[in-house]
Design brief:
It is built from 9 helices and 8 strands. The protein has 296 residues and is α/β, with parallel strands linked by helices. One of its GO terms (molecular function) is hydroxypyruvate isomerase activity.
């Protein structure tokens, strides 16, 4: 049973630093071995690749471009009439993935059009999504890349997002039937939409290609106050044999604020129940001098 490995989501972490190269350096200095970037497209791919190498980091995940943000777009995969733009964005994402030696791309589904009834357009949007995913699977297979589908909650984060539950995403993956398309498990979104995390982790983990974490409901660090018991959830992922990276996609407290940074970790596995909690989750109360000395 291998211990979990964590990747720094640089679209969320180190908000005090300007630019992804600086954030890559910061993540590397804290001991991360991997990073993920939602939308890296404002930076030249060569510059990002050089910064990642210098920081000793693997880039393990990027997203397809969001589309026209000024028009409220947040992905294009399932959006009727935007098929050509999705495919152009996919080509750009593949270019960046190859430059960064990144093997996974989140294929963003996008939003239900403004003013449209979700139930009324669901069938049309699914048809568009299936068409785009089949195309994406072929393109990604040529480059030995994996595409990921991430359900995003529609109760707090994005009320118009098309893909919002693990069940919906798994059903679409089954219809596409391509082995290089997998599920992206963000426990923050899954808890808000469906709960039942133990059952859902066990059911869907065989088709999961990446995991992300944040506390519910505030999307803070896993050790911040909230609904989720991450000591239990991390142990569950280990017990179920998950070997990929766990993305730290949360709003940090203060500068950095990285409770999962390896440089802050105890160095043990989830089963370690010493002064420092598993995976560097900070204690709620300070350690005594005696405990600190024992752990040194």
């Amino acid at each position: 049973m291998a211990p979990l490995r964590f990747s720094a989501n640089l679209s969320w972490l180190f908000p005090e630093l300007s630019g992804f190269p600086a954030r890559l350096r910061a993540a590397g200095s804290l001991g991360f071995e991997a990073a993920e970037i939602g939308w890296p497209y404002a930076e030249p791919p060569e510059a990002l690749a050089r910064a990642a190498r210098e920081a000793g980091l693997r880039v393990v995940l990027i997203n397809t471009p969001p589309g026209d943000r000024e028009k409220g777009e947040n992905g294009l995969g399932a959006v009727p009439g935007r098929q050509a733009a999705f495919r152009e964005g996919l080509e750009q994402a593949v270019l960046y993935a190859k430059a960064l030696d990144c093997s996974r791309i989140h294929l963003m589904a996008g939003r239900v059009p403004k003013g449209a009834d979700r139930a009324a357009v669901r069938s049309e949007m699914e048809i568009v999504f299936l068409e785009n995913l089949r195309h994406a699977a072929e393109v990604l297979a040529q480059e030995n890349l994996v595409g990921l589908l991430e359900p995003i909650n529609t109760r707090i984060t994005d009320p118009r997002y098309f893909l919002d539950t693990p069940q919906q995403a798994a059903a679409i993956l089954q219809k596409v039937g391509r082995p290089n398309l997998q599920l992206q498990m963000d426990l923050f979104h899954w808890q808000i939409m469906d709960g039942n995390l133990t059952g859902n982790v066990r059911e869907f983990l065989p088709i999961v290609g990446h995991v992300q974490v944040a506390q519910v409901p505030g999307r803070g660090e896993p050790d911040s106050p909230g609904e989720l018991n991450f000591s239990y959830l991390f142990q569950l992922l280990e017990d179920e044999g998950y070997t990929g990276f766990v993305g730290c996609e949360y709003q940090p407290r203060g500068e950095g604020g990285l409770s999962l940074a390896p440089g802050k970790a105890s160095g043990g596995t989830v089963s370690d129940r010493g002064c420092l909690p598993p995976h560097g989750l900070r204690c709620c109360t300070p350690c005594s001098p005696q405990e600190t000395q024992q752990r040194a």
